[in-house]
TrEMBL record:
Location relative to the cell: Membrane
PANTHER family: ATP-BINDING CASSETTE SUB-FAMILY C, MULTIDRUG RESISTANCE-ASSOCIATED PROTEIN LETHAL(2)03659
One example GO MF annotation: ATP binding
Membrane topology: Multi-pass membrane protein
Similarity-based family: Belongs to the ABC transporter superfamily. ABCC family. Conjugate transporter (TC 3.A.1.208) subfamily.
Organism per entry: Effrenium voratum
Name of the featured protein: ABC transporter domain-containing protein
Coiled coil: none
UniProt keyword Iron-sulfur, yes or no: no
């Protein structure tokens, strides 16, 4: 993948994720983690290579179908002005009850007394970053997405909202294939597989326990991480 000619962002990269598995993606800033998610959603097209889902090249899948099956919780979600329902389900395919259920599953109904007719200001400015992420998680739930991509927020999310995000990700996507870009390592300690990226390449893969037991880049990253980010280890 290239954003500029002569500057490959992802290269010689092969990853297999089995259906229902959780893959944790780590790597230093600029290593290509978000770009990998962009390739899966086709928000940026690969210049070489392919992404296969169930053996089908995603370029052969109509974009609307791909994006119904693959949902993203971005680092910095931007919402559009309107109602919560319009943000959760722009195509108006879901039943109102499914939208209310999704809000309930991420606890936004209680936290903000939010319902599908709650107003959203331009860019979602009346919600915090964490609350906007929770809304995106509710969108994935309402869509019954088979593949969920999570780009963890790098900016600060308050503790209470962060706990709701982690709880929702942990409990609501059992059996769903998840790719999680982690900036805090504890969020992927339950992953089936970790991939460490460096300069657009996968330089290490393995189960978290296996990587931690050896002298790996992942183990070194964990050693450097602040204790507070590893308390659940
Ligand atoms: N839209 C874009 N246009 C041009 N270059 C880009 C664009 N998006 C990313 N890049 C470049 O591609 C490389 C990989 O960026 P990417 O955002 O995928 O890394 P990352 O590992 O997700 O980083 P971070 O941890 O900081 O989010 C970087 O060099 C970045 O500057």
């Amino acid at each position: 993948m290239h954003y500029q000619p002569q500057l490959p962002v992802l290269q010689c990269l092969t990853l297999h994720v089995a259906a229902g598995q959780k893959l944790g993606l780590v790597g230093r800033t600029g290593s290509g983690k978000s770009s990998l998610l962009a390739a899966l959603l086709r928000t940026t097209e690969l210049s070489l290579g392919q992404v296969l889902v169930d053996g089908v090249d995603i370029r052969r899948v109509p974009l609307a179908r791909l994006r119904a099956a693959v949902s993203l919780v971005p680092q910095e979600p931007v919402l559009w002005s309107g109602t919560v329902a319009e943000n959760l389900d722009p195509a108006q395919r879901a039943l109102p009850k499914d939208l209310e259920d999704a809000l309930c599953k991420v606890h936004l109904d209680k936290k903000l007394d939010m319902g599908s007719d709650t107003r959203v200001e331009m860019r979602g400015n009346n919600f915090s970053l964490g609350e906007r992420q929770l809304l995106c998680i509710a969108r994935c739930i309402a869509r019954h997405s088979r593949i969920v991509l999570v780009d963890e927020a790098t900016s600060c999310v308050d503790g209470e909202t962060d706990a709701l995000i982690q709880d929702a990700l942990h409990r609501q996507f059992k059996g769903v294939t998840m790719l999680v870009v982690a900036h805090r390592l504890q969020t992927i300690m339950d992953a089936d597989l970790i991939a460490v990226l460096d300069a657009g390449k996968v330089v290490e893969t393995g189960a978290p326990g296996q990587l931690l037991a050896e002298q790996t880049r992942f183990a070194a990253l964990c050693e450097k991480a602040p204790l507070s980010s590893l308390l659940s280890l």
